[in-house]
């Protein structure tokens, strides 16, 4: 779809080399975007004071300072204005710092026109993305403060091409988060390719990822496109990236730096326009120290970090998660309960879930497969997962509320259960395992009658 750029304010181009300002200006104008130029940091600051540009392209090295200061200033003044930096060719030095400061992307000199046009189109798409992004975070269930913050972080990082590294225990939703980043950004209509780096035999990783020409190695009976090329234009999600063999780590580093790959046995490079998202449940810093993961690769992958909290740190999300999962897996089967009783929820809340949300899913799937009611027998919650009272569900309803006193904790629990019951007192009483009269008495004692 051809965008209508005419309604945008001018783009700001900052470079001390007039011919670069001219080249960028001509390209932008050719795409229908008005431009304004600045030849120093001071001049750029003066332009910003006049108003927000639609987007900004700036050299990193300016005569009176660093383009990173401009990125910071722009990000602070107008956080939704996309800014990209132009780096010196050899090393793309400063690119990682610029993206950490808020640049959505970078481009190395000498400037390649096809790439410049793509960068500008992405910047325009970003400038037009609604404040909340095209929201791909709905599938990440949970209203706890950590989950809300996570969804905000995802929407924020979705407005950039910077590589994201997702850490977190197994089953915490790292892949779900990667998909949400992709779905919330300007690449949402392009491919998302997930690769489990640990699941590919060492000898095949290179050809699987980068592709191979027919006959490139013994056994290569036909040409292989490779997953990077399959994902081109979109996002590649490298799960368990710590499992990559050293030789492939070198090639991955090159692919990120050069933005191109050469399939095995091929004579030419293929240009790449990819967003990299990686994940691991291992400690890559430790692997770097142990010599099994390249420090320079970690530096390139870990530009923006997202951490997925283990389920035991937000047990207050268990009821909602259970409901969504039950609806998803049991929705088609008549008679399958889509809510759990208060007793079951309390037992689940007292469990540490070493396998996190995936374990909760498995547990609920088993219940449905066995066609049992929603009672989870003690023996299913293995002793390894048992937790201490301080992170049980009742404590977790609101640890801070509990600290403020018993009444506050009770009020928080009543609010939560009424919320879950959609305001239905009978249902809420069921969830709590008390009579409606008892629930009403408690509500009245705590002056909460109005919330139901
Ligand atoms: N917040 C959440 N809301 C809804 N479903 C979730 C949430 N977190 C995880 N899940 C579900 O739990 C399962 C495991 O999630 P996912 O595969 O993304 O975890 P992971 O961290 O990538 O696991 P691993 O490290 O084992 O690859 C998936 O079915 C996913 O849909």
UniProtKB/TrEMBL annotation:
SUPFAM superfamilies, alphabetized: CheY-like (SSF52172), Homeodomain-like (SSF46689), P-loop containing nucleoside triphosphate hydrolases (SSF52540)
- Cite the entry's keywords alphabetically: ATP-binding, DNA-binding, Nucleotide-binding, Phosphoprotein, Transcription, Transcription regulation
* Annotated Sigma-54 factor interaction domain residues: 140-369
Recorded GO MF terms: ATP binding; sequence-specific DNA binding
Is-annotated flag, keyword Hydrolase? no
- Which top-level group of life is the source organism from? Bacteria
Q: Kindly state a single biological-process term from the GO annotations of this entry.
A: phosphorelay signal transduction system
- Domain called Response regulatory: residue spans: 10-124
Q: Which InterPro entries match?
A: AAA+_ATPase, AAA_lid_NorR, CheY-like_superfamily, Homeodomain-like_sf, HTH_Fis, P-loop_NTPase, Sig_transdc_resp-reg_receiver, Sigma_54_int
Residues annotated with 4-aspartylphosphate modification? 59
Q: Give the protein name, as stated in the record.
A: Sigma-54-dependent Fis family transcriptional regulator
